[in-house]
Specification:
- 19% of the residues lie in helices and 25% in strands.
- The chain is α/β, with parallel strands linked by helices.
- Strands 13, 14, 15, 16, 17, 18, 19, 20 and 21 form a 9-stranded parallel beta sheet that branches. A 6-stranded antiparallel beta sheet has the order 22-23-24-30-27-28, covered by helices on one side.
- The chain is globular.
- The N and C termini lie far apart (64 Å).
Length: 551
């Protein structure tokens, strides 16, 4: 058996300050590349001659391991380069062979040797779990508490700069404050509503309407749909790679219809080229979740048939089987078998009950409210929505969680065309966001094992309940104005409170009250005045140490 050839490779890395995708130029007929689980690596193949219609060239790597095969598409990267972007959730030796209508590349072989992950906070891609289908999990089996941060224009923050210092700073704030997902667009152009006049004094915070940023040649006002703008996607690589380094998921909305984007016609050659290219270029990132379009059917651009075709197109081209959804509840309801989780947008006052009803309607899928109408105020009035008070916005996120679902946080200073990437370094008169509320929220739900929590199916007359029978925990969310809380008697019928303890959690400060023995009437239709922070902050009663009663 011929000896495997090695690894004589050119590592195209320099000591830059942002996370980079490790690049290797293929220079041997065979090579073995060492990498870790969930590391993303680019293997670059170069042709001697120019290829006509390079974006349409058929080029795949068949990767084999333990009698399994994965067919990964390569993408064109300009300058006669094609890239095999690869990552792996499993360890071991994986052989690859290129298949292509480009004769020079067809038949080239190589090998990956994937070692066990050593990055302590890396857990792999986001997946579903058949035994617990209404929650998200990582590939290593740990729970993924989906707490998202909307930043539609993240692609524009450092566009045209070699360094992505602003993006890195904002993503660090997002990471530090418990957010582990960014809901974002591949591209947006501008908003259609009036802009705050104060922005004129701070043009450094305005990213809408820029003609120098476009995923196609030309500009949004004067597009050239015959090709794609490779430089746009090279910049986007840096953003997604930095997010991967920080273990932040990109909830990637491939289209958006209401941000004045000049898109090619639906299902045209240019439209398909763009869509396929996004799937080819970013599928290897474990931190990707696909979303066909923001508010997919709220506007007249798309049809349900078109969205269905895009989903099928995604699944055929994505060799990693990343999760797919559509930001349109009506579509998800009527096409439940086409999406991996249910996406909602609901601003109604009865948000909790609506989310609860959706959870009961879809017992086999997670419920994710991407947009609940709460947009925390910023120095600029960008889009106030239904709620802009910080505490009201926080309460709506907790309402989503206590219904058993997941949610997204919006700050008007970062969600749309305005991005204040360093809000805590602004002048004292600038309104600062309350990111810390969500750091407390994430820590809290990790501590009570949210993946085992179920909203009580019976009527709650006051407050919201989550019960974790597996770990012996009952939670009651209490708005600060409440005088008393009540949960169904079914809790006491099922759980033994003899050795239970209770304490309170302050949703604004993250503070816990002392843990004391359970007071007998704390959750059964009794008025009480002794809880801490009443009229000051919404709080959560935590009862622990419960045991299941023998039936």
């Amino acid at each position: 058996m011929q000896r495997s050839i090695l690894l004589i490779l050119i590592f195209l890395s320099t000591q830059l300050s942002w996370a980079q995708i490790r690049q290797i130029t293929y220079e041997q007929k065979q090579l073995c590349i060492e990498l870790e689980q969930w590391e993303v690596i680019d293997v670059v193949f170069k042709t001697k001659k120019t290829v006509k219609m390079p974006f349409e060239a058929k080029l795949f790597a068949t990767i084999s391991h333990d009698d399994r095969e994965q067919r990964v598409p390569l993408f064109y990267n300009g300058q006669k380069e094609w890239v095999l972007r690869f990552s792996s959730a499993t360890t071991g030796i994986k052989n690859f062979t290129l298949e292509s209508d480009i004769k020079f590349l067809s038949g080239l072989k190589g090998q990956f040797n994937v070692h066990k992950n050593t990055k302590t906070n890396r857990h792999g891609g986001i997946v579903l779990n058949e035994s617990n289908p209404q929650h998200f999990f990582y590939e290593d089996g740990s729970h993924y508490f989906n707490l998202a941060f909307e930043c539609d224009w993240l692609f524009a923050l450092d566009y045209g700069n070699e360094d992505i210092a602003k993006s890195r700073h904002l993503l660090s704030l997002i990471e530090e404050n418990g957010f582990n997902q960014v809901v974002m667009n591949v591209y947006s152009y501008d908003v259609s509503w009036p802009k705050d006049t104060l922005l004129a004094k701070h043009p450094e915070h305005e990213y809408g309407g820029r003609e120098d940023i476009y995923p196609f040649p030309g500009s949004n006002s004067n597009p050239d749909f015959s090709s794609l703008n490779i430089d746009f996607f090279k910049h986007f690589d840096k953003v997604i790679a930095e997010m991967h380094e920080k273990e932040i998921v990109s909830h990637l909305m491939i289209y958006v219809w209401n941000k004045l984007v000049n898109w090619p016609d639906m299902e045209s050659e240019a439209d398909n080229r763009y869509y396929d290219y996004v799937i080819k270029r970013y599928q290897a990132f474990p931190n990707i979740i696909w979303d066909v379009s923001k508010e997919a059917l709220h506007y007249t651009r798309a049809t349900k048939e078109y969205i269905s075709e895009r989903i099928e197109r995604t699944r055929q081209l994505d060799s990693y089987n990343r999760l797919v959804s559509v930001h349109d509840y009506g579509f998800c309801v009527n096409h439940r078998d086409e999406v991996d989780f249910i996406s909602m947008q609901n601003w109604q006052h009865t948000l909790y009950q609506i989310m609860l009803n959706a959870r009961q309607k879809f017992p086999d899928k997670p419920i994710f409210n991407i947009e609940h109408g709460g947009y925390e105020e910023s120095p600029y009035v960008v889009f106030p929505g239904a709620y802009d008070n910080a505490e009201a916005c926080l309460r709506r996120n907790y309402m989503c969680a206590f219904s058993g679902g997941y949610s997204t946080y919006y700050w008007q200073g970062a969600s749309w065309n305005v991005i204040i990437h360093n809000p805590f370094e602004q002048d004292l008169d600038f309104k600062k966001p309350h990111f810390e509320y969500y750091r407390h929220m994430h820590h809290f739900f990790d501590s009570v094992h949210f993946e085992n929590c179920v909203p009580l199916k019976h009527f709650n007359s006051s407050g919201y309940n989550l019960t974790n029978e597996e770990d012996g925990i009952v939670l009651m969310y209490v708005p600060k104005e409440n005088n008393w809380i009540s949960a169904s008697k079914v809790i006491k019928d099922k759980l033994d409170f003899s050795n239970a303890t209770e304490q309170w959690f302050n949703t604004l400060t993250g503070e816990y009250s002392p843990e004391i023995p359970y007071q007998n009437n704390s959750i059964v239709s009794e008025m009480w005045d002794g809880r801490p922070w009443k009229n000051e902050a919404d709080a959560i009663l935590i009862i622990k140490g419960l045991e299941k009663k023998k039936q």
